[in-house]
Amino acid sequence: MGATVRSVFRFSGKIVNDLISFLVFSVFDVLDILLCYVYKVVDFFVEDEWKPCYCSSPEKAIINGGNILVSENGEAEKIVCVTSTKVQLEEISGTLYSRPSLVAEVSKTSFKRRNVRSSSFKVEMIQEKTGGHKSHAVRWSDCDCETCNAWSNSCKDTLFVHAEGRKDNASENVIFIHGFISSSKFWTETLFPNFSRSIKSKYRLFAIDLLGFGRSPKPHDSLYTVKEHLDMIEKTVLEPNKVQSFHIVAHSLGCILGLALAVKYPNSVKSLTLLAPPYFPTPKGEEPTQYMMRKVAPRQVWPLIAFGASMACWYEHVSRTICLLICKHHRTWEFLTKLITRNRLKTFHLALF
């Protein structure tokens, strides 16, 4: 009898949750489209230009953003990403421009795809489109502090690294890679203080802030692809420190990068420790990226972590509004938090971005 009652309550709760979620996220679908036009107008008046966004078609956003969509030999679509120092071929994210929404589908116009096959022609198109490098000023909706605007206009290309342990002739190296909405402090304020002297005398410990997080650069012209993350880890940790072999300890998003690093350096990785890896086996016939997107962000109001993930993943302009209210004024929130908690030390919970 008790099991039957619990089953009825669970079923009823699921129905209520699904109904409320449908209504709430339908409102957000409309709100995000409205905010898209609001931000376009404000960007135009404040910054004198329309800003491309990911709810546009990829072709329009990419070309407006100074990049060219290409397709080579029938392979998957890629884009040429233009930076101040290099021309870089990157894969388009499977979810970046593909977040299904009935409202978005009705409101947007479809664009014919452009296929470019000649590499030399691609470079000519890029040069014609860009006409040289343009310096990026801080956007009106972004925080202008040194940390948040780190290296956005410079040519520096190294990550922030917190290093402890043996400084030279280390027999063992360990690279710690944090997850999403985190930083190197995830490790340095939890694990590092508990390592013994014998450990630190033998190992070199590297805790990095990934590209776009913590005190690492947040370049405006980056797509934050796996390749870009790996390139930055190589330039910052492996090459300058002459790391020939290493252990990897990674959490959440960092697990994807840890696996990619292990695939690239199979003979150098001595061990691989993955904490809470975002692994979702894809059923046959499903699109992997979209299936994972629905698992990570199921568009449900309950539990709250699912609601937060859905807000961040599905709604670009609602998220921008939240960042405008919270992230832009993070120094005020940090001050109030420390004042209320009487804690003068800023923990990794406050040093996420």
UniProtKB/TrEMBL annotation:
The keyword Hydrolase applies. It comes from the Eukaryota. Residues 174-291 form the AB hydrolase-1 domain. Transmembrane segments: none annotated. Keywords: Hydrolase. One of its GO terms (molecular function) is hydrolase activity. The keyword Cell cycle does not apply. This is Alpha/Beta hydrolase fold protein.
